[in-house]
Specification:
Blueprint (H helix, E strand, L loop, with lengths): L5 E5 L14 H20 L10 E11 L8 E11 L3 E12 L2 E16 L4 E2 L4 H7 L3
Antiparallel strand pairs: 1-3, 2-5, 3-4, 4-5, 5-6
């Protein structure tokens, strides 16, 4: 499988922070979503996608919180494909904050993504062109 990991910088917004000064847990999922889109766009490169016939659905989302993220933290999300099935694949992430020049994991997540055709309203096999990119071919 492709060992490519995308590193996406995240801008912490004031509205992301709760009364305790921590980034609210719901924002972690949004950060992962931003990173997934970034990863997929870079992975696919110049591959033209017809999003009505070859699309994606988020089927499952897990997030494990390790430590708080604060407003002034420098934050990145590492994203990679951790499993490839016939119609679905898993994308994993590690949300890190930089503390004294060292990256420390604040949260880790897993998303199960299912390939879907909206024209016929059905799941579809992972398109071969996508699979090749995911496998690093």
């Amino acid at each position: 499988m492709n060992s490519f990991k995308q590193k996406t910088p995240i801008q912490i917004r004031f509205k992301d922070v709760d009364r305790l000064g921590h980034v609210n847990n719901a924002n972690h999922i949004t950060y992962f979503e931003l990173a997934r889109v970034d990863y997929f766009n870079i992975l696919m490169g110049d591959v033209k996608i017809d999003w009505e016939s070859e699309s994606l659905i988020l089927a499952k989302m897990e997030m494990e919180y390790r430590q708080p993220i604060l407003l002034d933290d420098k934050v990145f999300v590492y994203t990679w494909i951790s499993r490839i099935g016939s119609k679905s694949f898993d994308m994993s992430c590690s949300i890190v904050r930089v503390i004294d020049g060292v990256e420390v994991e604040a949260a880790k997540g897993l998303a199960v993504i299912v390939c879907f055709n909206y024209k016929i309203n059905q799941t579809i096999p992972i398109p071969e062109e996508w699979r090749k990119k995911m496998m690093g071919e």
